[in-house]
Amino acid sequence: MTDELRLGLGLWSGQHGDPTDAVALARAGEDAGFDSFWVTEHHGLPDGYLPSPLTVLAACASATRRIELATGVVLAPLHHPLRLAEDAALVDRLSGGRLLLGLGLGYAEHEYRAFGVDPATRGARLEALVGALRAAGTGEPFSAPALGLHDVRVTPTPARPIPLWLGGYADRAVARAGRLADGHLVGRGEPDIVAAASRTLATVRDPADPSFVRGLVVTCVLDAPGGGAAEARAGFARAQQAYAAMQRGRVVYAGLAEPVAPADVDAHLQVRGGVDEVVAGLRAVVASLAAWSRVHLVVRLLFAEPDLGTALTRVATFGERVLPHLR
């Protein structure tokens, strides 16, 4: 039975907007009653997709007081492990112990080429990195030979041990999260994907274990006044088309391709409709994870769209009309 439900706002990825928009949205999420604010990462895309999530979260730390600041996810193999540990420790300090560090492998080949990283090594690097980050948080000297680190130290230390989550869909990635991490994030909360992850995780982690969190991102459009539904669908359509293009090896993103038809967009939304339908849909998602002691539901309300005002209104409306029914 779920003992703890936390509700996150995400995923901010920066297209079309000023990076300072993230600060305003994190503050709006806190005011609306969300428990966490999530950002993500890509590189080399022409529309300004966020390349440095921890830098943005450092800015958000100074404008918020309560909300957890989370990465969903840092593309871990592209980062120098010592630099990542130091940056994470500082963001956690600046936020007063509010960083949740989600790590993943990514999938875009051009990013690995740009950083000179062999993608064949990425799984092993991620596994080694989890242990290295935990050791780094102690402030004591440590070594991680698999990452080329020998007798190094990270100071200052984080405000507390930073929760480390892993993302991924493949059975191997999901099992890795269950073995090594404090949580697993499903980035696309389709029912069959969530169920498959549950089955794999349960082979390596007791669902009743209160030290582990089941996290998932659910894409949601609220068809109600203040929900900004038309803008949300248009932004989501641009993003979906771009993801598919990147996976085919072409670097295109939002604004560089025509949106797909709205009907096609709705097929990719996990939850949509009026207030009652959205509440019922999100409750059903949570119910599907009832076996897990701790659940963190990240509601994807932020898309590739240029108008900050519409997004701020959407967040406030969701906080007023939907969140109270999920507590």
From TrEMBL:
Transmembrane segments: none
GO MF terms, alphabetically ordered: oxidoreductase activity
InterPro entries xrefs: Bact_Lucif_Oxidored (IPR050766), Luciferase-like_dom (IPR011251), Luciferase-like_sf (IPR036661)
Domain Luciferase-like: 12-287
Keyword rRNA processing: no
Alphabetical UniProt keywords: Oxidoreductase
Keyword Plastid in annotation: no
Superkingdom in the source lineage: Bacteria
Listed Pfam families: Bac_luciferase
EC code: 1.-.-.-
Name listed for the protein in its UniProt record: LLM class flavin-dependent oxidoreductase
